[in-house]
C-alpha cells in the first residue's frame, strides 16, 4: 500500500509528490519550489525520506532540490541524459525567464537508466519517456498501479516540445509505448494539473488520436 500526496508549488504550480509506504519511508519526486514547505510536510508525518527522484530537470521541477537534499542528507536521482542540467541555468531553462531566480544545484548522486529500481522497501520501474526533454522518465509503481510521469502526459494534453531537446514525434511515441500500455486502471500523476488514467487519455485526449 502506497500513499501519494500532491503539492502544487511555485509560480508555475508544478506538482511535487511525496510517496509513503507502509514502513513510513518516503520518496520525494520533483521538489520544484518551496523547499521549506516540503520539509515541513515530511516532518509532520514523522516519515523517513530516502531519496529525491526527478522526472526531468527543467527549472520548475528542481528549484528546491538542494534545500531538501541537504536538510535530510538524501541522494538525488536523475536520468543520465540530463546530469549536466541540474547546475546549468541555460540547460534547465531558468535563464530564459527574467525575474525568476537562476537555478543551480549540485550534481546528482545517482544516474537513472531504464529498468527496476529498489530504494528501501520501494520497488519501481524506470521508463525513459523522452520528447518533452531528452532525459524525461516516468516512475511506474506496478503494485500500487500508479505512475508519476512529469511533463510527458497531462489530462487531455501532452507536454510542450518547443524547449531545447524537445521533439513532438518522440514524445507521442513515448506516451504510446510506455504510458498507454499500462493497465487502464493505473492512475497517472503528471507534472502539472490533475491526475488521469490511460483509459481516459485513449478515449479523450485530442493530441493522441490518430497517432501511429
Automatic annotation (TrEMBL):
SMART domains: Lactamase_B. Residues 13-192 form the Metallo-beta-lactamase domain. InterPro entries: MBL_Glyoxalase_II, Metallo-B-lactamas, RibonucZ/Hydroxyglut_hydro. Its cofactor is Zn(2+). The keyword Hydrolase applies. It comes from the Bacteria. CDD domains: metallo-hydrolase-like_MBL-fold (cd06262). Keywords: Hydrolase, Metal-binding, Zinc. The keyword Transcription does not apply. Pfam families: Lactamase_B (PF00753). Residues 192-212 are annotated as: Disordered. This is MBL fold metallo-hydrolase. It comes from Sporosarcina koreensis.
Amino acid at each position: 500500500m502506497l500513499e501519494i500526496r500532491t503539492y502544487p508549488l511555485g509560480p508555475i504550480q508544478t506538482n511535487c509528490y511525496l510517496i509513503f509506504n507502509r514502513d513510513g519511508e518516503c520518496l520525494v519526486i520533483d521538489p520544484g519550489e518551496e523547499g521549506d514547505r516540503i520539509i515541513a510536510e515530511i516532518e509532520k508525518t514523522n516519515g523517513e525520506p530516502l531519496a529525491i527522484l526527478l522526472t526531468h530537470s527543467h527549472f520548475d521541477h528542481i528549484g528546491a532540490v538542494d534545500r531538501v537534499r541537504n536538510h535530510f542528507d538524501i541522494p538525488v536521482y536523475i536520468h543520465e541524459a540530463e546530469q549536466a542540467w541540474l547546475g546549468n541555468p541555460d540547460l534547465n531553462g531558468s535563464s530564459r525567464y527574467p525575474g525568476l531566480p537562476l537555478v543551480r544545484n549540485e550534481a546528482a548522486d545517482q544516474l537513472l537508466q531504464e529498468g527496476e529500481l529498489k530504494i528501501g522497501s520501494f520497488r519501481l520501474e524506470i521508463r525513459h519517456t523522452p520528447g518533452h526533454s531528452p532525459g524525461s522518465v516516468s516512475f511506474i509503481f506496478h503494485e500500487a498501479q500508479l505512475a508519476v510521469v512529469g511533463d510527458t502526459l497531462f489530462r487531455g494534453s501532452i507536454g510542450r516540445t518547443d524547449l531545447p531537446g524537445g521533439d513532438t514525434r518522440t514524445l507521442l511515441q513515448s506516451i504510446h509505448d510506455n504510458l498507454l500500455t499500462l493497465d487502464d486502471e493505473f492512475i497517472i500523476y503528471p507534472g502539472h494539473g490533475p491526475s488521469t488514467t490511460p483509459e481516459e487519455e485513449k478515449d479523450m485526449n485530442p493530441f493522441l488520436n490518430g497517432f501511429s
